[in-house]
Amino acid sequence: MARTQDQLSRAFAALADPIRRDIVARLTVGDATVSDLAAHYDVSLQAVSKHLRVLEDAGLVTRSREAQRRPVHLESEVLATLTTWIERHHRRAEDRMVRLEEVLGEPPSPGTHTTDAGADR
Questions:
Q1: What does the pLDDT look like over 74-114, one tens digit per residue?
Q2: Contact status, residue 64 vs residue 73, Cβ threshold 8 Å
Q3: Whole-angstrom Cα distance, residue 36 to residue 100?
Q4: What pLDDT, in 10s, does the model give residues 66-75?
Q5: What dihedral angle (degrees, nearest 10) is formed by the CA atoms of 91, 81, 52, 25?
Q6: Which residues contact 20 (CB under 8 A, 6 or more apart)?
């Protein structure tokens, strides 16, 4: 449980940055090198490498070696863990709202109903 919480914390923290979220979105299409990814941003190659290091530490991406290339690969299992966590809490919040609407939508019980004459007193 604690390991999963740490992984969730690191992954959510890593995704707090818009460039890192965009990198993850680009990697959903396919693997890419650091240079490929850096071409989309107005930051240095070193800055993109630092963003990738944060994503690697969070377990969201991995790098492999293919001849002269080092493609970055998205680890979709971590995204699935995040999605599961969000969906579980979203479902609980939705269930709570449905219960609240049911309570608020019920007509008043017979003992609490007042008449116009009673309202004047």
A1: 999 999 999 999 999 999 999 999 999 898 986 666 665 44
A2: yes
A3: 50
A4: 888 899 999 9
A5: -50
A6: 14, 51, 54, 55
Per DSSP, the residues of the chain read -HHHHHHHHHHHHHTTSHHHHHHHHHHTT--B-HHHHHTTSSS-HHHHHHHHHHHHHTTSEEE--BTTB--EEE-HHHHHHHHHHHHHHHHHHHHHHHHHHHHHHSPPPGGG---HHHHH-
Pairwise CA distance, residues 74 & 30, whole Å: 8
13: its two tokens: 């923290």
CA dist., res. 120 & res. 2, Å (int): 61
Q: 17, 57 in Cβ contact below 8 A?
A: no
pTM (two decimals): 0.76
Q: For residues 25 and 36, give the distance between their C-alpha atoms in angstroms, rounded to a whole number.
A: 14
How far is it between the farthest Cα atoms of the chain?
Answer: 90
